[in-house]
Amino acid sequence: MNESLTQNVTEAFSRCADARTKEIVTALVRHLHAFAREVNLTHDEWRQGIDFLTATGKKCDGIRQEFILLSDTLGLSIVLDDINQHHDDAATESSLLGPFYRDGVKESAFGANIAQSDGEPVFFHGTVSDTNGRPVADALIEVWQTAPNGMYEGQDPDQPEGNLRGRFRTNANGAYAFHSIKPTSYPIPTDGPVGRLLVATGRHPMRPAHIHFRIDAPGYESLTTALYSSDDPYVNSDAVFGVKPSLVVEYAPKEGGYEVARDFTLIAKARA
Ligand code: BEZ
Ligand code: FE
Fold this sequence. Notes:
Layout: H1 4-12, H2 19-38, H3 43-58, H4 66-73, H5 76-84, E1 121-130, E2 140-145, E3 165-169, E4 175-181, E5 186-187, H6 193-200, E6 206-207, E7 210-216, E8 223-229, E9 248-249, E10 252-254, E11 257-261, E12 264-266
Parallel strand pairs: 1-11, 1-12, 8-9
Antiparallel strand pairs: 1-4, 2-3, 2-7, 5-6, 7-8, 10-11
The structure holds benzoic acid and fe (iii) ion.
Benzoic acid is lined by residues 69, 72, 96, 98-100, 188, 207, 240.
């Protein structure tokens, strides 16, 4: 094995003026070389790898981003989430934003219903507070989830505009409340090279039922997270590894539907 090959290549980047770019590119070279050596990669296998990456690029357009899906299914997105999230045990953990977030949803009144589809009714409620237990008033809470057919509004022309998307403010006590329906599990898009990779490697494409939350308040770190249904068959095998035990919730039966009581804790921004 000729170790000097890797050294020669990293040295070729030694005049890179930007220290961070140099660090990232040289680490990438070291790990790529180590990877190829570890698996004794053949020319034919790397050709297949190049064909796969080419097909992944060709599947991308203004709406579809197959490389993000690749990052998600390889667990790289959730590793980045782990690297970049706070590690304060008192605060709510983050989870993946996913590709279906939409800005510009109309704000709804406290307790409004975001569902225009039939489904099992759920009352979601709780508080937003800081890590000292102080309520955060007027926090912006954005939520989005799939309809019972497993599709988000935006993927499905048959759903009314804004279906199952909500934008709320916490009240003076930091409380939020809204009505919706129980989310369902759904497959990530499988009609591209990432879907073929999952099939070829014996993996399913399902995300367990969840509802996304994004919470923003002045003076606090933004929180992007999701609540996962404890009774979902895929809760322990999420195709994109977004589930964290602290984000798994029970849907408690209540008056012909369910109730989810869930509080969120934000981290105050460090003062400059
Ligand atoms: C989502 O939860 O919306 C999602 C996340 C990653 C890939 C596909 C979908
Ligand atoms: Fe989702």
